Amino acid sequence: MLTEWMRDTRNLAGSALLAMATTGLIAGPAMAEDDNPPDKAPDSILYDMPQKVADDVWSAIGATQPYTYENSLHNNNLSFVIGEDAVLVMNAGASYQLAEALHEEIKKRTDVPVKYVVNENGQLHSSMATGYWIDQGAEVIAHVDAAEYYDGHAAAYVSQLKDVAEEKAEGTEYVAISRTFEDRIELDLGGITAEVVYFGEAHSPGDISVVIPERDVVIAGDMAFNIRMLPIFEYTDTAAWLETWPKFAAVAEDKTIIPGHGTPTDLETVEYYTSDYLEFLRTEIGRIVDEGGSLQDAYELDQSQFSHWHTFDELAGQNAGRVFQKMEFEF
């Protein structure tokens, strides 16, 4: 059931999903660019303050921009669920100071301790503040593939964090994940259950989602996007992501979805920004491959219908090129 806030979001970000035409093109609504400031909470290192999504479920919605000093690398969603006995946080955050700021906001809303932190994957903005939460006595949990990816990239993350965040990076260092899992685990928060689920391969190694059945909420992680264009990395398998999507959709249907990036919404909207976009790319790039086209043809693919999406300029060409490089070897 959509809240008033979510209805406003859908009016902004694209509630009127249009079916893909026979050409494979997707039509979508315009994006209000003035809703994308460098920092929404200038008095805090957080990009924006936590907002209530459902009873006991909150999320500090990150910038729909690349990493910048102004957004303090808070460009993903930092969510938390308050149970009677424990608080669960989704994503440690990019830095010790960012995690500390989020924790201060949590403590304004409850005296219940943070016992669990679940990292949606092994990326910098998900995992680098693991050490802060362990210092607070929390157990930090990630999929085994995400933990391995984080371990292998932590040194580069520290360097990148210092380059972008400067003094805001102080206090941040690599600390290993406390606990890993492979398929799913269930955490009892006291009156609320958190089902931590690996649906299958998606955006990044070890992407997971957290389902809160008592609140009809799915904290999707990078399984699902909204408002901004999703990035395709060299390790992203778009075919596998689309095979995983129906498993996620079956659980997320009729629930409030907190995506990895962008405001909370519903399944229809995240399908538009995620699976529909992936289908578009694979259809159009597949046509280029079939016709003997080149990597340059892929870079020049007309994606202007998505030009209103945040991060379009940074990602559209890169996404098309990476899909082409993978699809060349799929046939």
Highlighted features:
Metallo-beta-lactamase, Chain A, single chain, about 35% helix, disordered N terminus, about 20% strand, 7-stranded mixed β-sheet, about 325 residues, 5-stranded mixed β-sheet, alpha/beta
Helix percentage range: 25-40%
For the largest beta sheet, what order do the strands appear in spatially?
A: 1-2-3-4-5-6-7
* Biggest β-sheet description: 7 strands, mixed
Share of residues in strands: 15-25%
Order of helices and strands: HEEEEHEHHEHEEEEEHEHHHH
At CATH's second level, what is the architecture?
4-Layer Sandwich
From the spread of the alpha carbons, the general shape counts as: globular
Residue ranges: pLDDT <50 for 5 or more in a row?
1-34
By CATH's scheme, which homologous superfamily applies? Ribonuclease Z/Hydroxyacylglutathione hydrolase-like
Task: Quickly count the domains.
Answer: 1
Task: Indicate the radius of gyration in whole angstroms.
Answer: 19 Å
Number of helices: 10
Task: Calculate the terminal CA-CA distance, rounded to whole Å.
Answer: 43 Å
Oligomer: single chain
Mean pLDDT across all residues, rounded?
Answer: 91
